[in-house]
Design brief:
about 400 residues, alpha+beta, eleven-stranded mixed beta sheet, two-stranded antiparallel ribbon, 14 helices, elongated
Length: about 400
């Protein structure tokens, strides 16, 4: 009978202790798996959504709120800005592109974004069905928004006031679905795009308002891509000097946000490390106690021809089995936790996480678990290796 089968039988002999050690190991690995999967996916998603956006121009207020509302679409806007700022930015020699955003409504929780065709092009989006909007009150659905709302080409729908589900229905101005985008893995997947004029039309129920010139209308924000590195120095200063405007830089605000989140992640990693340490100590106590209880059995095994090396392998195999089983259970628990978080974020039409995606750092977790298990088994295994047959049998009589 080999060391692994003997180790398995020994572990089954102490089901309660084995279950406790497995639980502690699984909790530690689960926490590390969850932290790695969530932090990596959130950071990659944030970088992808903000790629190519050098500056966001919006109403004065919190720069972070402006970035969250206009780039990631997970917060409320800071206010509105005059429409003429779009022309001023679009014709500025240091600006490559200026993409307008007009927010205010949603459809089943998915934001309706007034913009132009450049917004879809910015994320390299391609059509799965239909075409891009060509005139007001036409709408193009992102892949996730289309799937969750069962949108079909030619269908009509009415937006609800506000950026979350449950607001007043604008049934006086229905939209027509003209296109559905392929998945991009970006924020675009959970948005509904329409011309800026559509957003104005929906909210202008008074005939006098509908006749207002463009110069008197408003936008929520403008996404800017620089034409030259020099713009990074002068553009934010120029924007911030305007009475109603502020400039927010996604790269800076995202870094600040992840610095804040990183503190919490570091605390969770420390807790996970502490749980793994407790698991190692518990495993050590269990294996050491089992060795003390089975000293006579070990001595008899030696008299039957078992070598010291075989006893060493037996204890190490127990630690290995416990650690690998705990690592597997922890990995499954960790990803199930990601799935629960993904479901809660998905129901709020916010961020999208992949439950079973394996990120780079996870490759080290089985190795960490094995090292923890082998270290916990090392001292009991060394004692078993040095077992004195005669003295042990003499003490047992």
């Amino acid at each position: 009978m080999n060391a692994l089968s003997l180790a398995w039988k020994a572990l089954r002999h102490k089901p309660l202790g084995t279950a406790l050690n497995l639980l502690l190991m699984a909790i530690g690995i689960a926490m590390m798996t969850f932290i790695l999967a969530v932090s990596t996916q959130l950071e990659e998603g944030a970088l992808r959504d903000a790629e190519g956006i050098d500056l966001v121009v919006g109403a004065k207020g919190s720069p972070l709120q402006l970035i969250l509302s206009s780039v990631y679409h997970v917060d409320i806007p800071t206010g509105n800005v005059p429409y003429p700022i779009l022309q001023a930015l679009a014709t500025h020699p240091l600006v490559k592109t200026a993409i307008p955003l007009a927010l205010g409504d949603n459809f089943h929780g998915f934001r309706i974004v007034g913009t132009n065709a450049s917004y879809a092009g910015h994320y390299d989006a391609h059509l799965a069905q239909g075409k891009l909007f060509e005139r007001p009150m036409q709408a193009v659905f992102g892949a996730l928004a289309a799937r969750e709302t069962h949108a079909t080409i030619g269908a009509k729908f009415a937006g609800s006031h506000g950026l979350t589900a449950g607001g007043e229905l604008h049934d006086h101005a229905p939209y027509t679905v003209v296109g559905i985008l392929q998945p991009t893995g970006s924020v675009l997947d959970r948005l509904i795009l329409t011309p800026v004029d559509s957003v104005w039309r929906v909210h202008e129920t008074d005939p006098d308002e509908a006749q207002k010139p463009a110069a008197e209308r408003e936008l929520t924000a403008v996404l800017v891509e620089y034409a030259s590195p020099l713009a990074a120095v002068s553009m934010p200063r120029w924007v911030n000097s305007q009475p109603r405007l502020q400039a927010a830089q996604p790269a800076f605000e995202a870094a600040r946000l992840f610095d804040l989140l990183g503190i919490g992640m570091d605390v969770l990693r420390a807790i996970a490390g502490g749980v793994l340490l407790v698991a190692a100590l518990s495993m050590f106590v269990a294996l050491y106690g089992a060795l003390e209880e089975r000293k006579t059995d070990m001595a008899i095994l030696r008299t039957l021809g078992a070598s010291p090396a075989k006893l060493l392998r037996l204890l190490l195999a127990q630690g290995l089995l416990l650690s690998l089983a705990g690592a597997l259970a922890g990995w499954l628990l960790g990803h199930l936790g990601v799935g629960v978080l993904a479901a809660s974020l998905g129901s709020a039409q916010q961020l999208h996480l992949h439950t079973w995606r394996i990120v780079d750092g996870e490759a080290w977790l089985p190795l960490i678990a094995v090292v923890v298990g082998l270290l916990a088994a090392a001292l009991p295994a060394a004692r078993a290796y040095r077992t004195d047959i005669a003295a042990t049998l003499a003490r047992s009589h």
